[in-house]
Predict the 3D structure of the following.
Amino acid sequence: MPKTAPYFSNKLIAWYLQNKRDLPWRNTTNPYHIWLSEIMLQQTRVLQGLPYYLKFAEAYPKVEDLANAPEDEVLKLWQGLGYYSRAQNLHATAKMVSEEMNGVFPNNYKDLLKLKGVGDYTASAIASISFNRPEAVVDGNVYRVLSRFFGISTPINSTTGHKEFKKLAQRLIDKDQPGTFNQAIMEFGARYCVPQSPDCENCIFNDSCLAFQQKKVSELPVKTKAKPVKKRYFNYLVFLSENEHIILQQRTGKGIWHKLYEFPLIETSGKINLSKLKKLPQFHDFSEKINVKSISLFNEKPVVHRLSHQHLNTLFWIVETSETTENAIPISEVKNYAVPVLIENFVSEFFEDY
């Protein structure tokens, strides 16, 4: 390792300095902006996260601005980026830094870990980029680069793998420019040592990469089988009154989309038809309170919304009513509520002419 570390880091950093993308969070060491970008890029590609980063940076130039914003406003701005707990943690941490730390982020890995929503990866990124601390980051890109270069077959989603790769990355990091090293290895994994069909023939490491030499590039990194995808069946009741009001409800329970808004929902064990819908106790609860004039199915084929470990097979039932309930809102106001993309897509299509 003594010879490998300088060789690896020097070559990697040289490549990065010549090939790095010009991204806004790379033009600053401000911990607020680094933190903002890292939270957004968790489980999100740069191209998808960039517009959101720009929107947040403009709406909330300082951590105090984010802390003082209403949570519903933050969730609405986050809408479409997914994994909404990240937005809630973002807001909670902004309040903590603003109110308890006088707007100053911790300058070391250990204290950064105490912030809500900040784990090993994010704490390492902020500590290294903003404060020049030699804390190695390990994300999917890093796992891929290291497993291939060193020919490591330990599953990357195992406890043993986490420890092994973290220890290796820590030994390789350039202690004089840790932030640059971390960004270099992530950039290299994202743009060159890609998951499928990387250009190994022209890779800067093809003379020393064990996976390339042993023809194991497609086999690495190793990942243990994920849990089977769960199928769920959602039936949204779109109550539409004569005066063009609808009902939205906020999700309060644990699970997906916490604190986002949606139409009244009935979850079933499989796809149902109108006859079965009318027999459901939950539907009776609604129909006793609202005078239902007609019910029609908007989509014969369920909309399949794919999340990481579950697929939501969704039907939208248009329930026309004669009166408005107390908690109904005008259709024109729907756009002001933070809703899941599944709901947003339906609203854009169904209420296009309203």
